[in-house]
Amino acid sequence: MEGGKMLAACLLCWSCTVRVVTAIQRADMFPYGTLSGDLILAEGDDETSRVLPLPKPLYFYNSLFTQLYVATNGIISAMDLPMEKQYVDDGFPTDFPVVAPFLADIDTSGGRGHIYYRVTETPSVLNRVAQEVHRGFPDAKFTPTHAVVATWENVAAYEEQTRTPGPSNKVNTFQAVIGYDETDSYVLFLYPKGGLNFFGTRPKESYNVEIELPARVGFSRGEITYLIISRTEGPHYSVTSDEQSVKNLYQVGNTGIPGIWLFHTGNRYSFNNIIPASSGGLIATLHSGGHGLPLDTTTPEYAEFEEYPDNTFDPDNQEEEDDYPLTGGDPEFQPAPSGGDHSESLKPAGPDAPSSPPEDPGRPGSYASEDVPLTSEPRYGSEAAERQYAPRNLPEAVAEGGAQQTQEQQPQVPLEVVDVYPPHRNEPRLSPGGHVVSVDEEDVDFDTGVIQYTTENKETCARFQQQCSQNAFCSDYTTGFCCHCRPGFYGNGRHCLPEGAPQRVSGKLSGTVIVGSTPVQLDNIDLHAYIVVGDGRAYTAISEVPEPVGWALMPVVPIGELFGWLFALELPNSQAGFKIAGADFTRRAEVIFYPGNQRLSIIQTGRGLDDHNHLTVDTVVRGNVPFLPPGAEVTMDPFKETYQYYPSVATSNSVREFSVLSADQGSESFSFQLKQNITYRDCRHDNRATALETLQITMERVFVMYVKEERILRYAITNKIGPLGAEPTEPEQVNPCYAGNHDCDTTAQCIPLEGQAFQCQCATGYRGDGRNCYDIDECAEGLSSCGAHAQCMNLPGSHRCQCHSGYEFGYDGRTCVDMDECSSSPCHVHARCINVLGSFQCQCQPGFYGDGFYCSQQEGQTVRPKSQCEQHRDSLQSGVELRGWQSLGAFIPQCDSDGRYRPLQCHGSTGHCWCVDSRGQERAGTRTLPGTAPKDCDRPDEPERPKTHCEQHRDSVQTTSPEGYPVLGAYVPQCDANGQYTPRQCHGSSGHCWCVDNRGQERAGTRTPPGAARKDCDKPDEPERPKTHCEQHRDSVQTTSPEGYPVLGAYVPQCDANGQYTPRQCHGSSGHCWCVDNRGQERAGTRTPPGAARKDCDKPDEPERPKTHCEQHRDSVQTTSPEGYPVLGAYVPQCDANGQYTPRQCHGSTGHCWCVDNRGQERAGTRTPPGAAREDCDKPDEPERPKTHCEQHRDSVQTTSPEGYPVLGAYVPQCDANGQYRPLQCHGSTGHCWCVDSRGQERSGTRTPPGTPPTDCDRPDELERPKTHCEQHRDSVGTTSPEGYPVLGAYVPQCDANGQYTPLQCHGSTGYCWCVDGRGQEKAGTRTSPGAPPTDCDKPERPKTHCEQHRDSVQTTSPEGYPVLGAYVPQCDANGQYTPRQCHGSTGHCWCVDNRGQERAGTRTPPGAARKDCDKPDEPERPKTHCEQHRDSVQTTSPEGYPVLGAYVPQCDANGQYTPRQCHGSSGHCWCVDNRGQERAGTRTPPGAARKDCDKPDEPERPKTHCEQHRDSVQTTSPEGYPVLGAYVPQCDSNGQYTPRQCHGSSGHCWCVDNRGQERAGTRTPPGAARKDCDKPDEPERPKTHCEQHRDSVQTTSPEGYPVLGAYVPQCDANGQYTPRQCHGSTGHCWCVDSRGQERAGTRTPPGTPSVDCDKPVPVAPTQRPESVCERWRASLIEHYGGKPEPQQYLPQCEPDGQFSPVQCYGETTYCWCVDQDGREVPGTRSHDVVKPACLPSVAPPTTRPLPRPDVTPPTNTDITLLYAQGQKIGALPLNGTRLDAAHSKTLLTLHGSIVVGIAYDCKENQVYWTDLSARTINRASMAPGAEPEILINTNLVSPEGLAVDVKRRLMFWVDSNPDVIESANLDGSGRQTLFDTDLVNPRAIIVVSSIGTLYWTDWNREAPKIESSSVDGRNRRVVVSDGIGLPNALTYDSSSGQICWADAGTKRLECISPDSSGRRVIHPSLNYPFSMVYYRNHFYYTDWRRDGVIAVSKDSSQFTDEYLPDQRSHLYGIAIATTHCLSGIH
Q: What is the mean pLDDT of residues 922-935?
């Protein structure tokens, strides 16, 4: 190439201007020779090695090669080489692939040198290759797996014998090393010093011309084939161009080492041409004034080089990152050392300066692997000889994605080096490369003319975009590329997080800390952090910290400060650290304690983001810390830290003070100095300003705590970052976004507006209004970026993609590409591996047989008898089964040498593997997919995870017949490793392929036939044109049964490219063809049978003759069901060209044939079975003998319904040639066989099931009595379907011991009973409904009347015993006469009849209309009107008496005219008509909608109520217009409200509902039972058990009224307890549960396997947690929604521990409500506004063991203390005046397992009282140190919340929000009484004003919230306020004004009002989310759920004045004031 031709000139120019560093020696080459395992190439002039197979394929350029050849002439090729004369004297390019370290005419004949070569996996070789590549390509992520080493040692040039008297002694030595992994290859050329002595060779055919050709060095791809037969030159690359450039090969290099050349030579995905290394340029230092390279050169150029071994970035080895010293103080530019030459100070170290660690002198360019030792004082020139420091110009920093900058391009920067800790005594000295630097672009000359940057080796987005985050985009710049986060995300581009979302950090902490003189080892203990990005709060927790270290590390707040810097709240013109550093960084800090001078080093390394987008940070601490006494408290005042920013590093230096309070020492003050730097990778290619920047971190609150009992060390810091001095002086001027006191959701971003205004915007990946945000499930909503062969995994705020089994991520990190499983050699040594998409196949080589995983030679069969395994194997291996079928795709068992089944079996075609037992039976749960590691078959079986929908589908398909033959044609779904459907599915038999969604449903338009180009299943569906009629018809045909079998015989229409019917249609199974019109209708007379000449469908139709009887018969047969299934078994008559019956007719399914007459009637005696010789139908009939009984029986069986459907399952008797019953009869559908006598009666005891040998019918019967009529009737009822399912609803007669009908018969399913006579016939008038007393069947009966005969003749049960729905059954009175009014049970129509049951004209009324008075006589009849004729002409009953559903019947008024409004009885639609019955446009309304007033113009209609919306959302009609049976349709009254009683029209169940339509428990009644009185209030019933609540909470019906299939319903015993074994009705899985219904781990069994004995104990892994009810319910609903719930659909929200979240919402709406611990809705909590209800949890979070003693630790020296409840503790917050004294806050009482809600204080006894929602108790404790809690009340409490103490009357009052009561008791718990138990819905807060003896309480009923009052004895109850309130959570008494004040979470206001409801005023208009409140000295103090803290509000200024946020973030509940003495007006 052109660049190669320029290199020689460049090198010649450089050789005059550079000082060359010594070249490598031979000892520096890679090891070679026979001792290293090398092969030796044969001596000769033109030798080529044998093929060198590669263990894994190699990418050269972008082509894959699996073998190499080494040749004499200095080259390596991937193809066998031609004769040398075809290439040795030619230049590049070559015709074949070439790696040429020295291509010349070399001759090793006569022992002149040796050529060695090998493929190696030796770690030392691979490690060195990796080092060289990382040096030359710093950003490469390359770990070689194999290397090819080829060495030419002392080889000579070819010389003609006639030219020279003897051989020359010039010999060359050189080496080529190819290193490669799965995606990349790199090549090293090594030329040792003295290794090149000749530089070219003479051509063999030079014809005495003295010419020498220089050697060629470089690469050539070889010829490339295109367009199948054409070829073109491939790319090539030359390193040398003339003799001088060859001479320079050992003098220079491109890796930083003379004589070593490195090139990137291939990539799996995208590769254009060779890329040379660029890390060091040529090993030279330019003299001043030296000439640069010409600007127009295209040969790769190399920047000048000075080696800094530590200055490389290895993302996989953080110890090799850029190391920077700690820089303290403000940096400034300093002059050079005095006396020094400034220009000299810029020079790099000379050749003698050490450039690598002395411990490895033999390895060029080795890397430092330890941290740089740092000292505390700056040192300059005088130490240069002893210790190498970085000069003030930046070494070659590796900027992101670009070429390295040269030394002269770097600015000057001051350098200060500090020691973090002294190096260990025995550690070697370390290289000091890579120190703190700064760049000022004014000092950088980018156009010096000395070295020019070229794009030859520039890194670009096209090649390296995979280094960017999936939420970033890549931009190319002049010098390289940069990554930038997309809008909505923040970070440095390599790592991006959603803006506004909280962030989690996880990692490990390790190291050695010396406390005093005691060393303590910390071994990888857990560190977790949680940062609320919206307000800058960072919480850090370190667990399992030993006690001495835990106390001592409390002052070491800098451990947690890192997270504050990364995610601080940003003030204007600032950036938090994560936007600069991303997730890859190293922080080195040193903490020096005073006065003891102890030193502690902290190294924190960011390891990136994990699969959940959590930041991973590892921390190492080493050094000394001062001892702190146990129990000490550490406080630290707020402080500010200044950070200096340089390129790739941020530094700070500060001094902190802290106080230690201990019991022994009192309060002591200490300090420490913090020096730190944070190094990271930045990107400078986008030319942004690089001026020095200074930012300030303000740490407003610092909290530290060590919990001895839990061994947890906690830090809590609030952080803000901004420019120096940027904060305003007045706090009220700060926007809430910058102050952090906004009310945005924790997953929302606060956007500041003008002044105090701001806007809340949900973080990326969340949805909502900003104050309430919900995670978006990108996977369920189809918003993921995952492509084909990938599975989407949802994460909070984001998602990630995971490749399916058999695939791996490609170069872009996003696309899943096929994994080459063959590279790991999975097949047998005598088999060939074939890689296919997502899998692989193994095929035995010729001469061997087997499945490819095990292959055996065909000779040498054993003489011992074959084992079962061998017989099984050989019967399939031979290729022919016993029946002669070819065994394609059959599984061939593998047997060991003894003939036993191998424990691991694999299928050669599919690649599946599984374990088997000694009988060859598969062991459940051991099957693995192709490409995955097989199971260890020596391990016992483990319980398997439940099968996914795909796996169940796949495994349900029967691919092998009972005899073991493969079932061809079955479609088997393909599932990935996780059990999900692969995006592309293919049918193995037909070859069709199509794309599917995650539910396995075919994506429309993606099906392709075999051989056609397949659709790209990764592309989203394009908007497609609407389907045509043909396409809808075609796609509606179901060609596969639900079980996965192909449905044979289905006719599939053929459509052209435009979706129109092709003119000719053919039936694929029968072979018939016919012509159709454009509507797809068959054109008469065009049908041709298979093999006949087809009609020309382009010819117009001839005048059509009328259809003949045969044609009408043929066309009336229905061969396809309405759902598109083919109707199998239907007989279709065959007609000749004239439309007459062909003489012979055959049944296409059964194969029977017979002769017919000209009317199509079968001629007796002509029927022949399939395979028998057919009768000659042209012979006249012989005189016909009469039909025998058998023949009459056989011919009477109805095998086809009147509509043409085959009647499946009918038994057809078999008769012999004489018409007699065959002795053995068999049922064609069920497979049962039995013997019969001569009358065809079954002989008792002879019936055999399918698959068993039939009885020998020639043996005589044993004597038994004949079956009676009843027994025959009973035994003939089919109670099992042909598929083996029970047939529900069939009536089975009951017979007594003598076989006679019992007088009383009952239907087991419906519950009806009736009397029968001796023949089993029902006796009229004896039928009773379920629940009614049965008739006395011993009474004599009267004859049946006409009505009773009519009624009893109606067929309500099909011949098979099924109930017939929709039939009209006449109603008869007690005397058997027709009741005057008759009604149709299904349609609801009613009419009057005469005494003969005939309808009286004009009396029919539709359902819901006023019925006619049937007692009034008929008026004289007038002629029928048009409406009446129309109405009466509608056929509502079929000829067989069945009702015709869905027909529209016009409604006529009394005069016979059309009523103005017409309604369709089935669909429910209504419309207006004119007097001719024509519909008036625009008046049609759907069912349930407000109907149009047909007498007046349209008026605006009122909004629909909830009931009407529910009713109208139910789909009662299918898209085709059929009524949808079984849907529940709510009933609404005229006002749109739910009627109190609701009934299901299909099932007949009825129940009572409340005003929200919710079913009232215990009111459901079955059909026929007495209905509940829905006006009566609910009666008290025994409380439901947990099991019953669980069972009843399962939603078995969807909101639309459809049954929810697949829901798990718990099983409870008679006492309401969980049965020990639970089973899932749909999946068949069973498992054991404990008394709480929790699954016992390890007990789950799949269907068909023996269940575990639930009475035995089962070992449970300690870390396993079974799936909770909430989680199971959520998973089942997601499956019900098809994996994609709509935003408004309900999904249960579960806590991390599996419990129900207290607040539940419909999707992302604000329609929310509270639930209890079992997920049941708390009445009165539903909200429809933007504020969620204030729901309380009822289950305490899990606790950590060991638990501390719950004793009191009161605050010291405080007069006024706020007591607040926070879940499992009561906190104490002292007041200093009216200010919150956060520094002295502490935990008063820890109560693990509790949920403390209400709290009150008794100032007389100094005791605190509280309610416990979890334990359901009321408790108290003295405020004295060490006091323990006392339980006062622990019975009949459900949800105790608010609590108040009357100190004057010594009473306490509380509210219980579940039973909705207010109670009181004495302070010791005695004297309990209920004050109020009515007119309460959600009572919460309660206070008592002792001075006046008045109670006040709030009720936050969402429908009607209010605040009420009464006297303390329960009298004088009244409402104080009910208007303008929403969620009145908090309540207090303002003693100064005598007003009642409340804080409202709904209106967000704090308001006060006088007890007489006057003087209402607003104190504050915009609170966050208040819960509880107290008043003290003109200030309100309330707990806030948004801030999770205590907020102070001034009554005078109406402003927030103070805030306290506890270190542990969780909701705060009640709050109270504790005082040392009782305050007047308050207590």
A: 82
pLDDT at 71 over 50: yes
Residue 447 and residue 831: Cα distance in Å, rounded?
62
Q: Which CA distances in Å does 1232 have to 1090, 1249, 1253?
A: 36, 5, 10
Q: Are strands 904-906 and 855-857 parallel, antiparallel or unpaired?
A: unpaired
Distance of alpha carbon 1839 from the chain centroid: 36
* Interatomic CA distance for residues 1399 and 1719, integer angstroms: 54
Task: Report yes or no: 275 and 190 within 8 Å, Cβ to Cβ.
Answer: no
pLDDT value at 454 more than 90: no
Which of the 8 DSSP states describes residue 1782?
Answer: G
| E strand segments, 1381-1523 | 1381-1383, 1390-1392, 1461-1463, 1470-1472
Please say whether the dihedral angle defined by the alpha carbons of residues 1253, 1258, 1263 and 1268, taken in this order, is positive or negative.
positive
Q: Cα dihedral sign for 836, 839, 844, 850?
A: negative
* Band (566; pLDDT cuts 50, 70, 90): very high
Distances (CA, A) of 605 to 317, 467, 581, 585: 11, 19, 11, 6
List Cα–Cα distances, 1822 to 1751, 1754, 1814, 1828, 1840, in angstroms: 10, 10, 21, 7, 21
The answer for residues whose C-beta is within 8 angstroms of residue 1576's C-beta and 6 or more apart is none
Other CB atoms within a 10 A radius of the CB of residue 1469 amount to: 18
Between the two ends of the chain, the Cα-to-Cα distance in Å is: 96
Concatenated DSSP letters for 1826-1854? T---EEEE-SS-SSEEEEEEETTTTEEEE
Residues β-bridged to residue 975? 981
What's the Cα-to-Cα distance from 197 to each of 55, 170, 172, 173, 687, rounded to whole Å?
Answer: 36, 6, 6, 9, 48
Helix, strand, coil % over all residues of the chain, rounded to 5: 10, 30, 60
Strands 831-836 and 993-995: unpaired
Residues 272-321 have pLDDT tens digits of 899 998 754 443 323 333 333 333 333 333 333 333 333 333 333 333 33
Which residues, including other chains, have CB under 8 Å from residue 1859's CB and lie 6 or more apart? Answer: 1838, 1877
- Burial class of residue 1803 (count of CB atoms within 10 Å of its CB; 0-12, 13-18, 19+): middle
Looking at residue 408, the DSSP 8-state letter turns out to be: G
**Is residue 2009 within 8 Å of 532, Cβ to Cβ?**
yes
Rounded CA separation 21/19 (Å): 7
Diameter over CA atoms, the chain: 145
Q: Is the pLDDT of residue 471 over 90?
A: no
* Helix pair angle (1586-1593, 1669-1680), 10° resolution: 10
Average pLDDT over residues 934-938: 85
**pLDDT of 1423:** 84
Reduced to 3 states (helix: H, G, I; strand: E, B; else coil), residue 63 is strand
Burial 92-124 (b: 16+ CB within 10 A, else e): bbbbbbbbbbbbbbbbbeeebbbbbbbbbeeee
Tell me the DSSP string of 1105-1145: PPPPHHHHHHHHS--B-TTS-B-TT-----B-TTSPBPSEE
Which residue has 């986060």 as its token pair? 485
Q: What is the pLDDT of residues 1095-1104, one digit of tens each?
A: 899 888 777 6
Give dist(CA 430, CA 445) in Å, integer: 32
